[in-house]
């Protein structure tokens, strides 16, 4: 059985995706704690002193690439499961992800209800 996710952090510069994902996640699991960040630096500061079960991290953001964010997490010794979020699956991203032990997979935007249910550990 998959790990049950109770506290989820999204780092993505797309406000529309935040709104859609928040609505869908709360419909699937009303008691989940959700934290959305458009700015990766704000997310990084929050993660320095807070815990979460899962981080969904956009690969391409204007302020900081997802890969750079992972390096920063490693530098502070923060071990959190990460799913990389992308709008197009670039095979190079999969190769790069192998360098990071905390990356457990890729998600392609937009996230549908089935994928979100699976992420939360609620799929049969």
Automatic annotation (TrEMBL):
Transmembrane segments: none
Biological processes per GO annotation: phosphorelay signal transduction system
Pfam family membership, one: Response_reg
Xref: SUPFAM superfamilies: CheY-like
A GO molecular function held by the record: DNA binding
Residue ranges constituting the Response regulatory domain according to the UniProt record: 7-124
Species this protein is from: Aquiflexum balticum DSM 16537
PANTHER family reported in the protein's UniProt record: RESPONSE REGULATORY DOMAIN-CONTAINING PROTEIN (PTHR44591:SF3), STRESS RESPONSE REGULATOR PROTEIN 1 (PTHR44591)
Keyword Phosphoprotein attributed: yes
Keyword Phosphoprotein found: yes
Extent of the signal sequence: none
Keyword list, A-Z: DNA-binding, Phosphoprotein
Protein name, entry field: Response regulator containing CheY-like receiver, AAA-type ATPase, and DNA-binding domains
Modified residues (4-aspartylphosphate): 58
């Amino acid at each position: 059985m998959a790990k049950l996710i109770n506290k989820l952090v999204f780092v993505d510069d797309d406000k529309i995706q935040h709104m859609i994902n928040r609505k869908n996640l709360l419909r699937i699991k009303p008691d989940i704690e959700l934290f959305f960040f458009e700015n990766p630096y704000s997310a990084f500061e929050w993660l320095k002193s807070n815990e979460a079960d899962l981080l969904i991290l956009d690969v391409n953001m204007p302020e900081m690439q997802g890969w750079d964010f992972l390096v920063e997490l490693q530098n502070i010794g923060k071990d959190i499961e990460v799913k990389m979020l992308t709008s197009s699956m670039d095979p190079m991203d999969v190769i790069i992800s192998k360098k990071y032990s905390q990356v457990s997979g890729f998600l392609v935007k937009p996230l549908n209800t089935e994928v979100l249910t699976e992420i939360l550990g609620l799929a049969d």
